[in-house]
Design goal:
The protein is α+β, with helices and mostly antiparallel strands. It has a single domain, classed as 4-Layer Sandwich (Deoxyribonuclease I, Chain A), CATH 3.60.10.10. It is 22% helix and 24% strand. The chain contains seven helices and 14 strands. Strands 3-4-2-1-14-13 form a six-stranded mixed β-sheet. The longest helix is centred in the middle third of the chain and has 18 residues. The chain is globular and about 45 Å long.
Length: 251
């Protein structure tokens, strides 16, 4: 099974840059998209009619903002949103139950340049940890998406100049430490412990992506009991169309 996660920074924009052709070529069994920035009725019909894919979506009340969408060829037994309006009104989470595991497609909040949304982000982080710890009592869990936080200094190109930038604040990184201390495995880092230059997001400033001055903020975390099932965890930086690139998990 191949699962791909990608913050597309607008599904209509990335559609115009060849999303349908890329899906056909990559052929994921499950595709988790974040920051779709559209209601489902605004999705291009070529995407909503993709053969063999079941589509789930959660959009924000605010137009052109946030939103997550999951395309699956695997049978999904049940799909829920977070079921807290403070998050569902921003289209932040889809929780899928499959035969052997739960899969969460998440778009974690950005703390905002002035840090005004850091409290909201941290509450979301705490609540998502409670949720997946509860789910794991029933069956293993995979959680993927844009976490909007680089965990350690190896996860961004310029750690020294970003300690006061949301996405690398001590508070945010401490939560990531806590997350891992609960047993959740950052599977890419588990398989590539010392790999540098492995980033998933780059600023739109000219030349930044070409020079690979990036951050790794898109993840797959898995239950410990799934680690032995993982065949591959990868980052796909050559895939363009968004300021993020896709991340991949093969089981």
């Amino acid at each position: 099974m191949k699962i791909i996660s990608w913050n597309v920074n607008g599904i209509r924009a990335v559609y115009k840059k060849g999303l349908t052709e890329w899906i056909s070529k990559e052929s994921p069994d499950i595709l988790c998209l974040q920051e779709t920035k559209a209601n489902f009725d605004q999705f291009p019909s070529e995407l909503t009619t993709l053969e063999n894919y079941q589509i789930s979506h959660s959009s924000a009340v605010k137009k052109g903002y946030s939103g997550v969408s999951t395309f699956s060829r695997e049978k999904i037994l049940d799909t829920k949103k977070f079921e807290k309006d403070v998050y569902d009104c921003e289209g932040r989470v889809l929780i899928h139950e499959l035969k052997d595991f739960f899969l969460l497609n998440c778009y974690f909040p950005n703390g905002s340049r002035d840090h005004s949304r850091v409290p909201y982000k941290m509450q979301f982080c705490d609540d998502i940890l409670i949720k997946i710890n509860q789910l794991e009592k029933k069956k293993p869990v995979i959680i993927t998406g844009d976490f909007n936080t680089a965990h350690t200094e190896i996860d961004l190109a310029n750690p020294k100049t970003n300690h006061k930038t949301t996405g690398f604040l001590p508070l945010e990184r401490a939560w990531m430490d806590s997350f891992v201390s609960h047993g959740w495995v950052d599977i890419f880092r588990h398989l590539n412990p010392g790999k540098t230059g492995a980033y998933t997001w780059w600023s739109n400033m000219p030349g930044v992506r070409d020079r690979n001055v990036g951050w790794r903020i898109d993840y797959f975390f898995v239950s410990p009991k799934l680690v032995k099932k993982i065949k591959r965890a990868d980052i796909l930086p050559m895939v363009k169309g968004s300021d993020h690139c896709p991340v991949l998990l093969e089981l």
